[in-house]
Each structure stands twice: as C-alpha cells, then as structure tokens.
C-alpha cells in the first residue's frame, strides 16, 4: 500500500487498531472507550492491576464488538515495550494509532514532585524515563508497524504544566516540555513514512492522579476560578482531540501540540 493511499476518518476507524499506554484509569481509560465506541480495536497497558484491566477488556468486547487486549508494562523500564509489542503482534495484524499516556506517581516521583529546592536527580530522572524515554521507545516500535500499512498517527499526552506555573509540578512540567519537543523531532523524521506525530496538552483534569496531589483542593479552586468555563476538565474532554488527530481531517497536521485547558493558560 502506498502512503498516499492511506486515509482515515473518524467514521472509518472501524477495524483499525489503537495501542495506548496506561489505559485503566482517568484519561487513558476514557480514550480506550472513545475509540472502542467508534469500532476501533484497542490494546492498552496497565501497571499493576490485572483485574481492573481484564474487567475493561471484558466490558469493551461485550458492549462494542471490538477486539481488546491488555498488557502489563513497567513504564520505568521503557525497553520492555519491545516485549509487549511482541505480545501485541500475536493478537493484532496491524497498528494504526499509538498514544503515549502512562505516567508514574507515588514513591517513584519522590524528589521529582515538590518545590524547586527539594528536587532530586533520581525523582527527576524517573519522570523523564516515564515521560520522554517511554514515548520514544513506544513510538519507535509503533512506527515500525505503521510503516508496513502505509502510515498512522502517534500522539503523546502532555499537560499545560509546562506553560503555566503549577506548585510542586516543576519535575513533571519540564518533562512535558521535553516530550513536546521530542514530538516535533519525531514528526519531522517520520513524515516521509506518512506517520503524523502530535501532542495533546490538557489543563488540570479531574482524575485520581490529580486527586492524589496534596494540594488538590487548591488546584481545583484555582482552575475553576481561571477558566472562562468555570469548571475543571474531565477525562472525556481530551478524547475528541485524540480522535481528530487520528482522522483524515487532520491529515496535514503534524508536529503540533493541541492545548485543551478550558482557557486557563490565558488567564
């Protein structure tokens, strides 16, 4: 198949395949369901809860009639993506879309989540590994498979924490800026393979990950105050951009970051 013959629309994702990292909660889970509802086969990774992953697989296959599979992945060991993709190849015969979404939290970000004067190399390096390194390896493996079918779309989820000061977010914010830069480089080099690469940058989204922040209520109040829409973002607010970036409507859009933040970054 020649790359120029490769066309996708949101109404024709049926029978195509999405692979997303971190698909059991929050934004990732919302994306999994959004694509499944469009008739797209879905593969996703999970960190630890096989039961939650299996419940999602069963629910999607029962309600949407698509193939769904889940694979365990340690995002702090990005090279293990290669093993996961081998399992993926046993289950699916094509890959059209890859979304790098998984993040780390808890002890792994100690030294990376906090005020500037408390930042430590180990925590910062862990965030870089899970954000940038994982995107690179996941996207490289995806591109190899997309090239075989004439093209595809790769997305990295990002956040406006690299644009707007957010307390304790320096480690994450700087690494989101880094992954957006990597997206632009990937787009420049993968375009000849008809593979488009973009980022979706969300403002503070009301997920379990945000609720784990010690200053969650302060962040929530500030977001509601700053947004012209007077509300927090929901995980489903980001799914439309992901569907758009995988459709022919965005066929000349690559190397860009789409910001979805309820207008908060302008205030």
Descriptive report:
By secondary structure, the chain is of the alpha/beta class. The protein has one domain: 3-Layer(aba) Sandwich (Rossmann fold). 41% of the residues lie in helices and 15% in strands. The chain contains 8 helices and 7 strands. Strand 1, helix 1 (26-37) and strand 2 (41-46) form a beta-alpha-beta unit. Helix 1 packs across helix 8 (239-245) and helix 4 (121-149) runs parallel beside helix 5 (170-190). The chain is globular. Residues 1-10 have low confidence and may be disordered.
Rg, Cα atoms, Å:
18 Å
Global outline = globular
Encode the helix/strand succession as letters: EHEHEHEHEHEHHHE
- pLDDT averaged residue by residue: 92
Report the major sheet: 7 strands, parallel
| Strands, total number | 7
Which CATH class applies here? Alpha Beta
Category from helices, strands and their pairing: alpha/beta
CATH topology tier name? Rossmann fold
Content of β-strand: 5-15%
Low-confidence stretches: 1-10
Tell me which CATH architecture applies here. Answer: 3-Layer(aba) Sandwich
The spatial strand order of the largest sheet comes to 3-2-1-4-5-6-7
- The separation of the N and C termini measures 47 Å
Family: Belongs to the short-chain dehydrogenases/reductases (SDR) family.
Protein name: Enoyl-ACP reductase
Keywords: Oxidoreductase
GO molecular function, one term: oxidoreductase activity
């Amino acid at each position: 198949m020649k790359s120029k013959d490769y066309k996708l629309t949101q109404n024709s994702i049926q029978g195509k395949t999405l692979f997303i990292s971190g698909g059991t909660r929050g934004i990732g889970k919302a994306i999994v369901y959004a694509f499944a509802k469009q008739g797209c086969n879905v593969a996703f990774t999970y960190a630890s809860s096989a039961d939650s992953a299996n419940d999602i697989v069963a629910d999607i296959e029962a309600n949407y009639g698509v193939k769904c599979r889940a694979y365990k992945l340690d995002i702090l060991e990005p090279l293990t993506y290669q093993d996961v993709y081998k399992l993926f190849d046993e289950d699916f015969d094509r890959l059209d879309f890859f979304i790098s979404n998984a993040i780390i939290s808890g002890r792994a970000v100690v030294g990376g989540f906090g005020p500037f004067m408390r930042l430590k190399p180990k925590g910062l390096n862990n965030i870089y590994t899970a954000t940038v390194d994982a995107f690179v390896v996941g996207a490289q493996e995806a591109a190899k498979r997309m090239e075989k079918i004439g093209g595809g779309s790769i997305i990295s989820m990002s956040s406006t924490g690299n644009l707007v000061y957010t307390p304790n977010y320096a480690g994450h914010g700087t690494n989101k800026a880094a992954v957006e830069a990597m997206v632009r480089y990937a787009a420049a080099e993968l375009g000849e393979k008809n593979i488009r690469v973009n980022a979706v940058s969300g403002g503070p989204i009301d997920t379990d990950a945000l609720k784990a922040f010690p200053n969650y209520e302060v962040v929530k109040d500030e977001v509601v105050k700053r947004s012209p829409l007077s509300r927090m973002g929901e995980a489903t607010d980001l799914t439309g951009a992901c569907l758009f970036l995988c459709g022919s409507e965005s066929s000349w859009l690559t190397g860009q970051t789409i910001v979805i933040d309820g207008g908060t970054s302008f205030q």
